[in-house]
Amino acid sequence: MKLLIIEDETELRRMMAEALRDAGYVVETVKTYADADEKLHLYEYDCILLDLMLPDGNGLDLLKMLSARGSASRVIITSAKDSVEDKVEGLDLGADDYLPKPFHLAELVARVRSLIRRSGVGTHSIQVGNVSLNPDDRSAAVEGKTLNLLHKEYHILYYFMTRPGRVVDKQVLAEAVWGDNADQSDNFSFLYQQVANLKRKLKEAKASIAIQAVYGFGYKLVEEA
Question: Rounded to the nearest 5 degrees, what angle is found at the Cα of 143, between the Cα atoms of 137 and 147?
Answer without folding.
Answer: 45
